[in-house]
User: What shape does this take?
Amino acid sequence: GWVRCPDTRVAMSRAMSAKFARAPACTSRPPPSRRAWRETRPETRHGASRVGNSRLPASNAISSTEYDTALLTAELESLVEETRVSGQGSNTHVVAFSGGVDSSLCAYLVFKAFGETEKDGGSETRKNKSKSSQSNVYAAIGVSPALPESQLVEARKVASSIGIQLKEVPTNEGSLPGYVENEGESCFYCKNTLYQTLRALASDAETEDESIDPAASTFLSFEKHIKTITLYNGTNLEDTADTSRVGLVSAANHSVASPLVHTPKARIRELAKLAGLPNWDLAAAPCLRSRLALGVQATSDTLFRVELAESAVRQLLKIKPNENMRVRVMDALGGADSDDSGSSNDGSSNDGFADGGTERNRLAVVELDAIHLSAVRKNKTIHENLVYQLSECGFVLKNVRGFKSGSVAKRG
Assistant: This one.
């Protein structure tokens, strides 16, 4: 062996020191935090991602939105199947239709269950068994002074989007004293008239059907046959808790089926959106009679003036279809309790109109969503125009207030 001399070791040490001195300086870093380490480590290991203490394949991960849609789809399909099962013994299926979101979704369910054309072995068939039943699945809307023309147009559009036939059926509830008096039972008389009319119409159609054997048209067979008619409505969960909806009593008397009776209103809108209904987000549009305070007679003239007034207000304030607005007609003393802030009778017309045999102006209250209410109260010109538009329709503006559904349905 050999022994390295001290001078050699010293020379090597000096050379190494000079090399490190020429190297670029390294910035010092603090040790990474635990959180930073978690964020920079690979998300997956062996094709899996950590979820809590479990491992799920990364390819199966879905967003909450996707899962909500899956739940809605399953619920919609379940409602269709429930409707099919409950009405499978009937030959004729008639939906009491208004064009609102509730009855529209009901019509969608009934049409999917009994009326939709489907492919079967390359040929189109109906879910219904008989050929005659192809025309026995339809929606029917009662046409009377209580139905605004705009709502009838909307009903036609929605029915067309569903694909269901729409029949426009004249009704005569206005000839009934109990309806005209409007003392809290008008809805009962209206619905009773509607269901009687729809059932009679369906019965006549079935009786005239060529598939019925005239020789078998005995009283018993006829009675058995007309029982195969099922009427449907769009009653929802909240409706059942509203004591002012006396029309539900009539629905029960006529054995009307309500596929959505356990479904909340908000959920109905979600389901209607999923079903592709064009009115899923539109504001509710009940009949014009619902604008009248108790005791204000529901004459055709009053209802017509309400329709004109609401059309004028909607145009003046540029109210969108999904925003709420009502022109409430009060009695001569103002009807239900109200806050008179922002009220004015200035500029109103003195021209009265016949109502219950008395010539007089009607006091009216306009109800608006918050954004429009604020605009009217803050702008004197807008308020004056509102007063003028109502006077042109025979009303004296008593007040402008926030929208409240059913605000004049009870005495307050």
About this structure: The longest helix spans residues 64-86. Residues 181 and 412 are 18 Å apart (CA to CA).
